[in-house]
Prior knowledge:
The complex is a heterodimer of chains A (111) and B (115).
Chain A: E1 4-7, E2 10-14, E3 19-25, E4 30-38, E5 45-51, E6 56-59, E7 62-67, E8 72-77, E9 86-94, E10 99-101, E11 105-110
Parallel strand pairs in A: 2-11
Antiparallel strand pairs in A: 1-3, 3-8, 4-5, 4-9, 6-7, 7-8, 9-10, 9-11
Chain B: E1 5-7, E2 10-13, E3 19-24, E4 31-38, E5 42-50, E6 53-57, E7 64-68, E8 74-78, E9 87-94, E10 105-106, E11 110-114
Parallel strand pairs in B: 2-11
Antiparallel strand pairs in B: 1-3, 3-8, 4-5, 4-9, 5-6, 7-8, 9-10, 9-11
Amino acid sequence: KNQVEQSPQSLIILEGKNCTLQCNYTVSPFSNLRWYKQDTGRGPVSLTIMTFSENTKSNGRYTATLDADTKQSSLHITASQLSDSASYICVVSGGLGKIIFGKGTRLHILP
Amino acid sequence: KAGVTQTPRYLIKTRGQQVTLSCSPISGHRSVSWYQQTPGQGLQFLFEYFSETQRNKGNFPGRFSGRQFSNSRSEMNVSTLELGDSALYLCASSFVEGKSYNEQFFGPGTRLTVL
């Protein structure tokens, strides 16, 4: 069964600290993996997209990694800011236009 | 370029009614996908339209339907509303259909509340 599992479900950290969010998937065949940030009440915004051959990609303070062998991805946030408080959604695309969403990790940054 | 727009942003309906939501994609984007987002289930794929044709469909009952117009604008309709249909409905557009390396750009969503 094609699934995308994210952990933790929620996370609370202090402003300025780093954190890492996890995404494990069983989608096959695999085409690409994306991380989205979704602020409350808004639509998701793309952070990174990686294909099978890419194992790391950065977007400012956000760095995503992909291990296609173990079917795991992580999103690392460096020097967190209050504006990083949001839900982070991992999305895996497979064959024939199949798109599977994780349920997201809710991140809270405290001042 | 203007982003994806969705109307209305908020909607309150009662059980049994029907509702129509509208989505205008980014100019030049021909693929429009619809998603339902609830706290318990996360984002779930409803359907995708490309060139006025439904290309993919998720596992939702026939009460959920959609269409796309020649200008790529899309509408989705939910008939005989149920309490469980309360959700954020998101529309996403992309430039190329069928190529999974296509980035989707999401609209702000329509918050539907069914009483």
